[in-house]
Amino acid sequence: MDATTTTPATKVATVKLLIGGEFVESKTSEWRDVVNPATQEVLARVPFATQAEVDAAVACAQEAFKTWRKTAIGARARIFLKYQQLIREHMGELAAILTAEQGKTLPDAEGDVFRGLEVVEHAAGIGNLQLGELANNVANGVDTYTLLQPLGVCAGITPFNFPAMIPLWMFPMAIVTGNTFVLKPSEQDPMVTMRLCELAIEAGIPPGVLNVVHGGEAVVNAICDHKNIKAISFVGSTKVGTHVYNRASLAGKRVQCMMGAKNHAIVMPDAHKDQSLNALAGASFGAAGQRCMAVSTAVLVGDARKWIPDLVEKAKSLKVGAGTEKGVDVGPLVSCAAFDRVTALIERGVAEGATLELDGRKPNVPGYEKGNFVGPTIFSGVKPGMSIYDQEIFGPVLCLMDAESIDEAIEIINANPNGNGTAIFTQSGAAARRFQEDIDVGQVGINVPIPVPVPMFSFTGSRASKLGDLGPYGKQVVLFYTQTKTVTARWFDDATAHGLNTTISLK
User: Fold this and answer.
1) Which of 60, 257, 292, 399 is catalytic?
2) What is the per-residue pLDDT across 458-471, written as a single tens digit (0 to 9) for each?
3) Which residues of the chain are under the pLDDT cut of 50?
4) In what order do the strands lie in the sheet with 134-139?
5) I need a surface site. Which of 108, 222, 412, 490 has the fewest CB within 10 A?
6) Is the Cβ–Cβ distance between 447 and 435 less than 8 Å?
7) Distance separating alpha carbons of residues 433 and 282, to the nearest angstrom
8) What is the pLDDT of residue 493?
């Protein structure tokens, strides 16, 4: 279906813009339906903001920056202490909204919100994070120290697959470090993001400090080009991320882009069998495979190749259905377009010679016949050059590859251009250490299938999965959202002020 419409088919709610502290109706003529992927019910209509609306959001953010940057760091921290409390109080409501518009199960939706909440909690500790450095008496009576000062108006562009977590990666850390923010959520599922923004305003974020505009390519380009936006954080596809990075960098902005992936897990023959297979199934098929950190490829080393039938049985035991139903493990794909793309790639995998061990197409989901459902799907005999290996499927599809040794498995992973995450399952400390040293991937799990770091650290994807030097949240993002200013100071009293010095020495 074409989700973009210009006139509503039925009377449904409209998603608002947030500009200058007010939730306002867009004056655009271009709208998109927000659709429940399990039922195809239209939940709301989201506007594609006009250029004037983007300009108004940035102007409000720029004006608010004048006073927000001067707000005491303790006052900023207290807002986020209040905000984390409000998120906790509304966890069930937020998860329900998320499940309705995105499709993931309610427990997974709560996890989405919770992982964002952890970053909000980290933001509340900004007093210990935004510290400069001091060197006393670097020369005679001279001190040198650094200040971490906010940049100005920053912006974030977020994807559909984590509509709570990833916005919460961005605007809390940007705002708590003294910046103001313009957020562009995914147009596919913006409703939970907007509810989070309502709670942020309730927590005390002043008018203009947080603004939201909706839209597609035109709004993304407007953000990249706007002369008053100083930094952009992006999470999404490699194609769009590369475009954002190049365009915004040419416009002189600071940019970080977390992009596509092809995450591999090595399974060694000495691994704990049940734990490893459970972890693989959860990491491959949870969230219907719509995670940038999903394990989409497993490299089975030696006798671990004999475990394929057991893995298939585990995958068969997972329940496919609407995210609101109890006991469901795999919800629908986010859209009809995503469904068509994933099923087409499964067909290509068969045509290109991979062995289809488990076919998840056309699962039986009583009561939800219109849903975008694909069940767990497993291919063996996968080789580089096959479409299912070379492309990020972003669905519940696991590719199995063979290797004779850990060294061969590491070579396979390092030859892939992406570097978001990887894992090894083994009971050998020596094998795990070799893996963590030799693997060329930003985030490494040892018997942990999805090694996303907690907020005290930073998300550290690498190679083709990331553009920009600094990652989101954690210590790195404090540096991303601030400018380091170095001050060299010398104070004189009457006893030490003497003579004329024409050299650059401070002795």
Assistant:
1) 292
2) 999 999 999 999 99
3) 1-3, 6-9
4) 134-139, 142-150, 482-490
5) 490
6) no
7) 24
8) 81
Element (H, E) at 403: strand 397-403
Tokens of residue 121, six digits: 């909690």
Which one, of 186, 181, 184, lies nearest residue 162 by Cα?
186
Residue at token pair 């259905």? 321
Burial label, 496 (beta-carbon count in 10 A; 0-12, 13-18, 19+): exposed
Widest Cα–Cα separation across the chain: 91
Residue 437, strand partner residues: none
pTM above 0.85, yes or no: yes
Q: Which of 234, 377, 267 is nearest to 318 (CA)?
A: 377
Distances (CA, A) of 153 to 23, 55, 61, 216, 331: 19, 12, 6, 20, 37
Tokens read off for 270: 């000495």
Q: Which two tokens stand for residue 194?
A: 């907007």
Listed residue (185, 166, 187, 217) closest to 335, CA to CA: 187
Look up residue 474 and give its two tokens: 């954690």
- The string of DSSP codes covering 193-223 is HHHHHHHHHHHTPPTTTEEE---SHHHHHHH
Is 197 annotated in the active site? no
Cα(370)–Cα(372) distance, integer angstroms: 7
Instruction: Identify the residue whose tokens are 């930003």.
Output: 442
232: nearest Cα among 217, 218, 252, 212: 252
Coil, strand or helix: which one is 335?
coil
Residue 11: the pLDDT is 83
Residue labelled with tokens 């083994």? 426
What's the token pair of residue 192?
């939970």
Mean pLDDT of the chain: 95
Contacts of residue 430, Cβ cutoff 8 Å, sequence gap at least 6: none
Instruction: Please list the alpha-helical segments (H only) found in 267-372.
Output: 273-285, 308-316, 336-351
Retrieve residue 6's tokens. 């210009």
Q: How far from each other are the two terminal CA atoms of the chain, in whole angstroms?
A: 74
Helical residues (DSSP H) of 40-164, grouped into ranges: 51-68, 73-89, 91-102, 106-123, 126-129
Let me know: does 330 contact 286? Beta carbons within 8 Å.
yes
pLDDT digits (tens, 9 = 90+) for 159-174: 999 999 999 999 999 9
